Amino acid sequence: xxxxxxERMRANPxxxxxxxxxxxxxxxxxxxxxxxFYGFVMVVAFxxxxxxxxxxxxxxxxxxxxxxxxxxxxxxxxxxxxxxxANTEFDALTQEIVKEAWKDQK
Amino acid sequence: xxxxxxxxxxxxxxxxxxxxxxxxAQTEKQATNWHAIIMFCIFVTMTMGITYWxxxxxxxxxxxxxxxxxxxxxxxxLAIAGDYMSAATLLGLTAMVYTxxxxxxxxxxxxxxxxxxxxxxxxxxxxxxGKFTFSDITAYRLDQGKVRTMAAIxxxxxxxxxxxxxxxxxxxxxxxxxxxxxxxxxxxxxxLMMVYVTFGGMVATTWVQIIKAxxxxxxxxxxxxxxxxxxxxxxxxxxxxxxxxxxxGDKLMYPGSLLKDPVTAISxxxxxxxxxxxxPHILMRFFTVTDAKEARKSVLYASGFVAYFFNVIFxxxxxxxxxxxxxxxxFEGGVVGGKLIGGGNMVAMHLSKAVGGNMLLGFLAAVAFAxxxxxxxxxxxxxxxxxxxxIYARVIKKGTASEAAExxxxxxxxxxxGFVAIILGILFEKQNIAFMVGLAFGVAAAANxxxxxxxxxxxxxxxxxALFGGYGGxxxxxxxxxxxxxxxxxxxxxxxxxxxxxxxxxxxxxIAFLLAYIFSKTDSSVRASKEIxxxxxxxxxxxxxxxASSASNH
Lengths: 106, 554
Hints:
- The complex is a heterodimer.
- In chain A, 87% of the residues lie in helices and 0% in strands.
- By secondary structure, chain A is mostly helical.
- Chain B is mainly alpha-helical.
- Chain B contains 20 helices and no strands.
- The longest helix of chain B has 50 residues.
């Protein structure tokens, strides 16, 4: 029975829409995090002195500290962005899909 | 019976404290820290009360493994943070910033960066597909017996390595902070953990972790604020003074010796990021919430707390350079720059004493003990569920076991794991266990993560591929660590390592993925094509959550 439900949901164009939109959003964010994080790791590995430079002439803040603090905040900001969109837009769409699959059963 | 046992335990907690006084009088290793012991007893009393309450609410297997799925996203976020930030985080990373400066901050980013990835790619699918353990997901459309056995073996491997690290750390730490004998400390941790988990299951474990996370966050913040007030809350002043007195000088803020070659840096990054996504006790926490919505919120809160606390630790470490590192009181023989009293990991403790006196030191010591208990309980529950839910109920009984029997087995498994942890803790007392946490993350990244992510994302995965990938990753991660410098040379005393790098992930993860791919692709059995067909329904459920196990009504 549930297999038939899954079949109907799969056939719903909204399902394809949900999967495509959420997938694109999630992978974009994941790609940003991975690229920034491993880019940073590469700099640590290949050009460590660049991270020890001051951000501006005479400042005690180094590039490394500034970049890392930014990444902590930015990555967390991205998780907030994802949760906000997934918990409203995507969840509403999901509920529609499930509801329509129920209706078709009757 | 429950009431009697708890009363007996309350008494034994006090007699342990009394014994401690004797032990210290004999060995004179460290003065008994009464502030710490009293605060810790308050913590134990409180958590025992919760365990007593939780025991009355733990009836079904769902209650036992996942607190009935009724934990909110915020509570679970705190519990995940409590589960993830061990005593090694508080003490080890503060010490790392104290000695290596910026390197410690890099480590912390590696520990943090896995969380966004878990959210974007895994959290909702985990919640939608899983029930009690992550093998529910890997075995969803594959051969239950074989795949669950494999997942249970690798889970237990991770749990055991992690437990050794925690238990030995606990023994050493408690010996220092509370003035207890090493073996007494190990038994205290092991027995308290058994009580929490066997009586209170996931409900008690969750609350122990939540309380501990609140204590850790508030204690750390208080120490940081008091310490920073000495520098007028100016990060610039702090950096200026720290670099002028530290022996590394300006190099303090440069990436240094810990990540000297690119391979180690990348391998560490991979291991910590994807290891986090393969730790069974962390994955299990995703099944305690009502639905995918709450699962996402859990990660949002958990990663927020983790990121915040790592920055607190960075500041604590830097303040420690000036407040602890310049004060002869904290060095053996009063020589500044010599050996710190109690060893290098004591920076956070000395700092709390310097800025807040014995009261704050006692509080932070109690936090460290509570931290160990919370992490160990989470590990024991994850290990016990692998034994009872995967091996006993699904592999041996093939799904015919009654709930009561399954809970009984998991309680027995918890007690066995408790004794295993105590025995391992005593056996490894004198060993160099620095590699243990790395090994646990390495195995999690190479054995658990690849099969888990493939089972959720790749329709082509078959039982044969999953088995080769999982066992291949497990064996190669263990062998790489065994042949590396940290075990082959430092523990076994051989002259040169057989494997030149200390971090296994960069090598073991590709092996796991490649084996899973090759052996799935070449699998032309009838069952394999059924398993590939099964992906379609699994995919719809993963995306929509329809059919996912829901919260029980308690």
